[in-house]
Amino acid sequence: MSLETEKGNSPEVKIGTNRKTRKGVFWPAFLIVGGGAVLGIVNNKMLADISMNGFLGSLRGLGWLYQIISIVALVIVALVTFSKLGKVRLGGEDAKPKFSFPVWFAMALTGGIATGVITYGVNEPIIYLGNIYGEMEQTGIKPGTSEAAIFAMGRSFYNWTFIPYAMYSLSGLVVAYMYFNRKKSLSVTATLIPLFGEKITKGVWTSIIDTLAVLAIALGLASSLGAGLALVGSGIETTYGIQQGPIMWLVLTFLITGTFTLSALKGLDKGIRILSDINAKVFYIILITIIIIGPTLYILRTSTAGMGYWLQNFWAWGLDPIDMGGEALVMWWTLYDWAIWIAYAPLMGIFLAIISHGRTIREFMFINWILPSVFSIVWFGVWGGTALFWQQNNVIDLVGTIKESGAVAGLWAFLANLPLGSILIPVVMLALILSFATAADSMVRTISSLCTENIKHDEEPAKWKKLLWALSIATIAFVMVAYAGGAQGVDGVKYLAALGGSTVLFIFVLQVASAIKMFFIDKVEK
In this entry, which stretches build a coiled coil (predicted)? Predict the structure, then answer.
């Protein structure tokens, strides 16, 4: 087996030059994703219709399962973290971690956060407050009131913190434990061995399972890139008066895709690690700036009340398949969120596992579950709290901006109203590009690894695979934004996200069951 190495400040990173392609995973997944890209170019309406019907069908029919499995995942993650299982070290008692805590957290946070918190840190609470798409119709709360503001904060906390990060963490832990401690292959299929035995890794099943995981993350990435295109485009239009449209989105697609593709080609140590560190620091600077210049007391009070409202309604929200809150609130927000998090989970789990060698399970959960959840609470508290304060005190009409210009438009009006708005707007645009690029390069690497036979965690997949997947995902994202924006401006990419989640939902359910058997029934390998 021929291996090349790249040398730098970190331990050697191997590049498998003679690793064979897993044809049973690569070709089915690429033909579907690449076929979707071609279909989007040839007949974008057909692609949009297929995606929309899949979106509506999967969330209406499987909403109950999304809600139940999300709660179960949360409970398992909490039990594993705070029990004696938390002391188990990934890789064995003598394993040493490769990355420091700050670098590790930066990679874990920015690798999974994509553009979400920037896109919706302002927009989601304001949309709830103003009942813009009918979110408050079945809640009994009057839009625009103080109670509506507290609801908006609490619901945002619910959608963006401990439950979704539990999904990532659970998948990542199962992958890491099976690979480093049980010495199984680095794949989604290997996580199901506790349930089905070694036979699941042989024959057609391993190809089917890993192919579905690749499809899910490819569609999820396309949706995230699409949301980023729509958001940056609206920012350029709002701030600089340049009309957004297919040409602007195409230019942005080339810019963002070029950034994450170059980083992915550089590999884990020279690309992803450095880009993650830069991205995380941009996040911290933006957050601290808004804390200093925002309505600090209102932020603290509304965040505290929002957490209370969230905890008070936790079980009702957590087990509502649509019937209590209604489609506008539950399907288009919470279930959509769960779908895209689950779409990312199996392959994000592989990435989180790769960078967690040598850490204990408790450390793994602290970095991948607890800290990102706390970060999201602070982020939504600061961004959302400031936006809600301005809206209620008639400082700026963010509700009107979103009604006029789409679901992602409020952010730019919000930033323009800050004292340092002219400086912050380009910084946030940079953060958006970096955020997606950081998530995409880690996932393109993981997709390419899953399409390669017997690849190890410290090896890089072939560069041509990374490039091919990056271009296919970028094409679908551009088509869905340019031709399937819909009422919210990002409907098309939401359709893609739900399709990605529904393709891998049942695999995630099996991963949850596998975790239960592995950690609470079988003997734990230390």
Answer: none
Task: Give the span between the Cα atoms of 105 and 485, in whole angstroms.
Answer: 34
Mean pLDDT of the chain: 86
Report how far Cα 191 is from the mean position of its chain's Cα atoms. Answer: 20
What secondary structure letter does DSSP report for 452? Answer: B
Residues 6+ apart with CB under 8 A from 400: none
Residue with the bigger pLDDT between 117 and 379: it is 379
CA dihedral 388, 392, 397, 403 (to 10 degrees): 70
Given a contact cutoff of 8 angstroms between Cβ atoms, the answer to whether 501 and 342 are in contact is yes
Torsion angle, CA of 406/407/412/417, rounded to 10 degrees?
A: 100
For the chain, what are the domain ranges?
A: 58-520
**Residue 182 to residues 81, 86, 115, 375, 459, Cα–Cα distance (Å):** 19, 17, 35, 32, 19
> Are 479 and 38 within 8 A, CB to CB?
no
| Alpha carbon distance 231, 236 (integer Å) | 9
Sequence-distant (≥ 6) Cβ neighbours of residue 261 within 8 angstroms:
441, 444, 466, 467, 470, 471
Spatial CB neighbours of 507, under 8 Å, sequence gap ≥ 6: 188, 192, 209, 212, 213, 346
pLDDT digits (tens, 9 = 90+) for 22-43: 888 988 888 887 777 777 777 7
For residue 435 the two structure tokens come to 């955020």
Q: What is the pLDDT of residues 205-254, one digit of tens each?
A: 888 999 888 888 777 777 777 777 878 888 888 788 888 888 888 898 88
Tell me what pLDDT residue 371 has.
95
- Per DSSP, 21 falls in state B
DSSP secondary structure letter of residue 360:
B
Percent of the chain with pLDDT over 90: 44
- Of the pLDDT bands very low, low, confident and very high (cuts 50, 70, 90), residue 267 is low
Compute, in degrees rounded to 10, the torsion defined by CA atoms 157, 446, 511, 107.
Answer: -40
pLDDT the model gives residue 10: 39
Which residues, listed in sequence order, are joined to residue 5 by a DSSP beta bridge?
14
Determine the Cα–Cα distance for residues 130 and 401; give it in Å rounded to an integer: 11
pTM score of the predicted model: 0.86
Q: d(Cα 521, Cα 420) in Å, to the nearest integer? A: 56
Within a 13 Å sphere around the CA of 150, how many CA atoms are in the beta-carbon half?
17
Q: Which fold has domain 58-520?
A: Amino acid/polyamine transporter I (1.20.1740)
- Of 442, 221, 457, the C-alpha closest to 343 is 221
Burial call 168-189: b when 16+ CB within 10 Å, e when fewer: bbbbbbbbbbbbbbeebbbbbb
- Of 219, 525, 200, the residue nearest 187 (C-alpha): 200
